[in-house]
Write a structure and sequence with these properties.
single chain; 375 residues; alpha/beta; 5-stranded mixed sheet; binds zinc ion
């Protein structure tokens, strides 16, 4: 009896969550469309919608014209009913974002702040979160919490930063990062966070590999609608694929890692750390930088092709460089098609949707997903 009761509750919760997701995936939807989309009975849909209306997550917005009989009621998502904050910690910067229930980036800010283990750094994080929420003029009760993206391996419980080459830490409790932040905090690896943001955006939740090209290179493997973490939470460390035996020295201490050929720094080091300026000069035809970019695309095509050969699924390229890749995607696809062992095709390559602060957004989305999962 207990088992069947529990599963009934589960089914109810899943139906309610799915009803919410369906309404949130569009601007407005009629009751008929909603029932068809969810493939559940109209009385069940109606009950779910009623509950979502009471919770203030959905609103009724007039009615659709009908070809006959009564007008169809229409519902719309209340995207800002709740919001979450995302923080992305890197070696030299802190980014902060505000994300709504639909995953929309409401506002963001990025500041230079070299990481340090001193308490003043963690105090700074607390102040940044406080100011950001205050400036957003959002009632505090609407904030679900803070998601924090870290440049390293976060253990399964989210309580330990097991290792970070980027900020030189090993076995540090993640609570160190949140000790001056008076909100519920959750933690995730930066590339997994960015990959999670992309996955959440996919309607069909198909298997995908995400390659993150930021100041370090990482990635995420998205299988069966969730992140594949590996035995030690180290999956998707594509940055340390060896591209060239005995090649350039990587920050991990080994040689020839992808990171040394395809991190965003490989490009931005030519323009005083400013990636936007790098691409401006490439567009303007700067010969030296164009040749740097050509070489970069070549190495990138080696890696993306390797990922395709390994996983046989779509590959999304994101991170700082991914944000600029749209206009060069056809060029990259041509290189990939040439490398493809099976057919001269590279339509599997996709450019990231989140061009800005994907890691911070993904971290905030953990809070949003927790909220939706508990509805
Ligand atoms: Zn390495």
């Amino acid at each position: 009896m207990k088992i069947s009761r529990a599963s009934n509750i589960d089914v109810k919760r899943i139906n309610r969550t799915n009803t919410m997701r369906s309404i949130f995936s569009c601007d407005r939807i009629s009751q008929r469309e909603l029932a068809a989309k969810l493939d559940i009975s109209w009385p069940t849909v109606l009950q779910n919608v009623k509950e979502l209306l009471v919770l203030g997550l959905v609103e009724e917005v007039g009615a659709f014209e009908s070809t006959g009989g009564r007008k169809a009621r229409a519902f719309a998502p209340v995207r800002d009913a709740h919001l979450a904050v995302g923080l992305d910690i890197t070696q030299n910067h802190v980014s902060i974002v505000l994300v709504d229930l639909a995953g929309g980036l409401v506002r963001y800010s990025r500041m230079q702040k070299p990481f340090s283990m001193e308490d003043s750094y963690f105090q700074f994080l607390g102040e940044v979160v406080d100011h950001f929420i205050m400036e957003s003029c959002i009632p505090r009760e609407k904030i679900l919490g803070v998601g924090i993206s870290l440049p390293g391996i976060v253990d399964e419980s989210g309580k330990l930063l097991a290792r970070s080459h980027a900020i030189g830490l090993r076995d540090v409790p993640t609570s160190a990062f949140s000790r001056h932040i008076p909100w519920h905090c959750v933690f995730i690896n930066d590339a997994n966070a960015a990959g999670f943001a992309e996955l959440r955006n996919q309607e069909d939740k198909r298997d995908t590999v995400y390659l993150s090209l930021s100041n370090s290179v990482g990635g995420a493997i998205l299988l069966d609608g969730s992140l594949y973490m590996g035995d030690n939470q180290r999956s998707g460390e594509f940055g340390h694929h060896t591209l060239e035996p005995d090649g350039k020295l990587c920050y991990c201490g080994k040689r020839g890692c992808l990171d040394t050929y395809c991190s965003a720094k490989v490009l931005s080091n030519h323009t005083d750390g400013n990636l936007a300026v790098f691409f401006e000069r490439v567009r303007a035809g700067d010969t030296v930088l164009c040749s740097v970019w050509e070489k970069y695309l070549d190495w990138l095509s080696v890696e993306v092709n390797n990922l395709r050969m390994t996983f046989d699924c779509d590959v999304i390229v994101g991170g700082y460089v991914g944000g600029y890749l749209e206009e060069f995607a056809e060029d990259l696809r041509k290189r990939l098609a040439k490398r493809n062992t099976f057919e001269p095709d590279a339509t599997y390559l996709r450019v990231c949707r989140y061009k800005l602060e994907a890691s911070a957004v993904g971290a905030a989305l953990l809070q949003i997903e927790q909220f939706i999962g508990q509805l």
